[in-house]
C-alpha cells in the first residue's frame, strides 16, 4: 500500500456518518423532542391488604419516587384495573394529580376493536394524559393496506402524541416484514403528524431494531428497551430515551445509570456511552435474563419487577394475581432470586435498600401503618424461602 493510499484510508476512517434525527415539525413532535429523553417507567399500582382496593398513599409515594429517579414520564399498568373497572380511572387520576405536571403521564390503547379504542382515546384525553402508546391487536392475516387503515383510524382519532409499539408475539405481523415488523406500514404511519415515536420491545432482535431505526429514525424518536443496543444504534440514529418498562431495574435515584447512558447517547458522546455500557452491563444483563423469557410467553415477572422498584426506594408491595397472564408464565420471586437481584445492583455500583423483605411484601407505606405480611389476603408469585 502506498503512503498516499494509506493516508486516504486514515482520512476515510475519521469521517463520521451523520446520524438520523427525528422530525420536530409538528406540535406533537416538538413535544416529543422536549419530553422524550432519559428513562420512562411502567407504573405499577399498589393495593391495600385485601388485594383489590387501591392504596392511594402508596401510589402517590411511587409518583414521587419516579420523580426522584429523574424519569421523563410514566405509564400506569392496567392489568388489574381494566378500562371497564372503576379503578382504571381512579388510578390515572391519582397518578396525574400527584404528578402535577412535573412528570408526563402516558396512556395506552390495547384493544382489538377500532371503535372501542377510539372511545378509550377520548377518555384518556379527558383525563389529561400527555402521550398514548398504541398497543392494539389486530386480526391475523391482514394485508398491509388493511393494517395501515386500522392503525391510522386510531391515530387520527386523537390530537395526542402517539407512540407505536414494535413487538413480537401477538403484536407482530408475520408476512408483513422481517421478524414480523411491518416496515412499509410503519413507514406510512410515520408520516402522520401526531405519530412521534416507536418503542421497540425487549425481544425484538438487534437486526430488526436497526431496520426500524434506519427506516423511521428521520421522523420518529426511537426508544429501544434493549439498552445494550445503544453503542451500535446511537452511532447511526439519535437515541435519547427508553421507557414504559421496568426502568427501576437498572438504576437508583442516587445513581441514575440509565438516564446517564441515554444522555450520552443523545448527545453523541460515544466514549462516555461505551464506558457506561460496561458499567451498566451486570444489572442490565440480569434484568434481561429475568424478564425476556416471560415477555416471550406473553406476561411480565410482576413480583420481580416490583422488587426491583423497591430496591431503589419505591413502595414495593406484592401485586395480585394477573388474570390475563398465560398459566405458568409468571415466575415466583424466591429468596435466591432476591439475592441475585441485589448482587446485580452491587456489581453495577448501585446501593439497594437495606430494609427487610417483609417490608417489601406489604409495601413501605403499609408497613409504616403497621401492616405485616400475615395481614395480606395472599402472597401470589412470592416465596419467603
From TrEMBL:
Under InterPro entries, the record lists: Aldolase_TIM, DapA-like
The keyword Membrane belongs to this UniProt entry's keyword annotation:
no
Q: Does the keyword Ubl conjugation apply?
A: no
Write out the entry's keywords from A to Z: Lyase
Q: Pfam families this protein is in?
A: DHDPS
Write down the SMART domains for this protein, in alphabetical order: DHDPS (SM01130)
Q: Where are the transmembrane segments?
A: none
* Name of this chain's protein: Dihydrodipicolinate synthase family protein
Organism this protein belongs to: Parerythrobacter lacustris
